[in-house]
Specification:
Chain lengths: 452, 114
């Protein structure tokens, strides 16, 4: 049958995957293996620092299995958003890892590396030509924000992957990329419909999350054909259903039907989902609507200070009943004590009361017999953050309150040391659209012949 | 006679929240019973105004609030009051913010269907 079959080992590289199911997926003779390796989901720290989310050894484990399988079968392996933020520093880590695995196992292949980080001077030059539309941060992007941020990367679409495959790449390691583009590139290159290829890619990028049972670590197969695509979990006892697959179109997307990406919108309004058998679902009707201007999304995070925390437990019921006033009094004392030292932000995260939802918490009455308290301070320096958080801790430890019976100390410490310097704190400040005249222009590619 | 109502979590199979990028929070309300879905859809109780109240945001900050028949689900997206992981954020993934939806009162299934 005329088709392009893609295999997704897992929804997130480094989290591990079911290797037996992956082997079953390989037996279906896929034309390529695709793997997403990054996200903004874990918050701004990883974009701000350019550090990977997981220790490199966990990525290496996952990468080694899929790289060897791809070379054994002579099919391309495409990895996008390596690693986490997809900036140049983590991309280089991933490329180094590929080289080490290749050497260890005697693998030879043509490797394409595609970077996504944009040089800041170049970014400012482009910004001078016209404002970038914000997708979240207040106001348009400014040169000052660019300077304050860590590495800034753009999310590439399918075109840089297609260019790499056209150049004969057998392994493609890309910086920040749209997760669906990793999987849509090969079908698009072979002339299949872009809307179907991207929709299939969107489902594959989270692997088993669109099957039942939901499991990010379960491999998934996608078959893009001329007028539809099919998805199927590799695990023989798992199944895709019309509801699980259509439901996945909702996941992490603002609108179920209109999904914007580089260069256009994928319109799923008329998508239909058909159950083929107990485990397979057929999808048709997804349509890609190109934009007049090709735009890509930029991502970056700036440092807003340093964070230090103290974690404690509170068990005394008399104190728990008065927790708000006790905490506020300690805040006041900290503000008086440190007012000359520069600003700080003190947040009490009171687990058992409202730490998760804050002012949105619908339960007004605290019924917990114990509270977990994270005293969270962000300040301009690590020392000041630690100084403030330890002052607040000390004040609370010996705070007096009406009816107190436990005058030897108010809080239980789970471990020593008490004050934990967490390191830099960040905020997403760049989440803007930038126009390109060529979809590949800010995603330079290098080709290397790996020989072992 | 007062109309009988049920909490949404008695009718829906999945009520979940998650980031849709660092600046949006998105909610999926999914049903395994098409009749329950249709009843909730017909009742109109899931609307932007109700969501704005539940999350104390402006109606304008409710970006999407619509049924999606293909998934037997409702899709709701709001602007995040604080971006993911910013100093005052409380839920980096945004995956534990669904609870205010669970107690939305909807017409009881039998009454709505009848």
């Amino acid at each position: 049958m005329e088709e392009i079959v893609g295999l997704a080992p897992s929804g997130s590289m480094g989290s591990g995957y079911n290797v037996d199911a992956f082997k079953r997926g390989l037996a279906a003779n896929p034309h390529f293996i695709g793997q997403d390796a990054g996200s903004t989901d874990m918050g701004p720290y990883y974009h701000g620092t350019g550090a990977p989310f997981l220790p490199l050894a966990t990525y290496r484990h996952d990468l080694s299995i899929m790289l060897r399988a791809a070379r054994e079968r002579r099919i391309p392996l495409l990895v996008g958003s390596a690693l986490t933020s997809g900036c140049n520093a983590t991309l280089e880590m991933a490329v180094r890892m590929v080289g080490e695995i290749a050497q260890e196992h005697g693998l030879s292949f043509r490797l394409a590396t595609i970077s996504a980080e944009i040089d800041k001077a170049e970014l400012k030059r482009r910004l001078a030509q016209g404002p970038f539309e914000s997708l979240g941060p207040d106001g348009p992007l400014t040169p000052e924000t660019i300077d304050r941020c860590g590495p800034i990367a753009a999310q590439m679409g399918t075109e840089p992957f297609v260019r790499a495959l056209d150049a004969g790449a057998e392994v493609v390691i890309a910086g920040r990329a749209c997760d669906d583009a990793i999987f849509a590139a090969m079908p698009i290159m072979q002339g299949y419909d872009k809307g179907l290829a991207l929709h299939c890619g969107k489902i594959l990028e989270c692997a088993g999350l669109s099957a039942i049972p939901y499991d990010l670590a379960e491999p998934l197969l996608g078959r893009v054909r001329r007028d539809h695509f099919e998805v199927e979990p590799c695990h023989p006892d798992h199944r895709c259903t019309t509801v699980s697959v259509a439901g996945h179109s909702l996941y992490e997307r603002g609108d179920p039907c209109l999904q914007p990406g580089p260069g256009g919108m994928n319109d799923l309004t008329d998508a239909t989902f058909t159950q083929l058998d107990a485990r397979r679902v057929k999808v048709s009707g997804s349509r890609f609507i190109p934009d007049r201007i090709y735009r890509v999304k930029l991502e970056g995070a700036e440092q807003v200070g340093f964070r230090s925390i103290v974690i404690v437990g509170i068990r005394d019921p008399i104190m728990i009943r008065q927790i708000d006033s006790i905490l506020e009094e300690a805040r006041q004392r900290a503000e008086d004590r440190f007012k000359a030292a520069g600003g700080f932000n003190l947040l009490y995260r009171v687990y058992g009361k409202n730490a998760v939802m804050g002012p949105l918490e619908p339960e007004v009455e605290t019924r917990s017999h114990e509270l977990g308290l994270v005293i969270d301070v962000v300040a301009p320096t690590q020392d000041l953050a630690t100084g403030v958080v330890m002052f607040v801790r000390g004040t609370l430890q010996h705070a007096s309150y009406p009816g107190i019976v436990t005058t030897a100390g108010n809080m239980a410490y789970p471990f020593s040391p008490f004050g934990i310097p967490v390191g830099p704190a960040h905020r997403f400040s760049v989440y803007h659209l930038m126009a390109l005249s060529d979809p590949c222009e800010c995603f330079p590619m290098s080709i290397e012949e790996v020989r072992n | 006679m007062a109309a009988q109502t049920q909490r949404l979590d008695q009718l829906a199979k999945v009520i979940r929240s998650k980031n849709a990028g660092p600046f949006e929070l998105t909610f999926d309300i999914m049903f395994d019973d098409p009749a329950a879905y249709e009843a909730v859809k017909k009742s109109g109780v899931i609307n932007a105004k109700r969501i704005a109240e539940a999350y104390r945001v402006r109606v304008d900050d409710v970006l999407v609030c619509r049924p999606y028949d293909a998934a037997v689900a409702f899709k709701i997206t709001i602007r995040r009051p604080v971006s993911s992981g910013d100093i005052e954020d409380r839920d980096v993934y945004g995956c534990q913010q669904h609870v205010p939806l669970t107690s939305i009162e909807v017409p009881a299934l039998r009454a709505a269907a009848g």
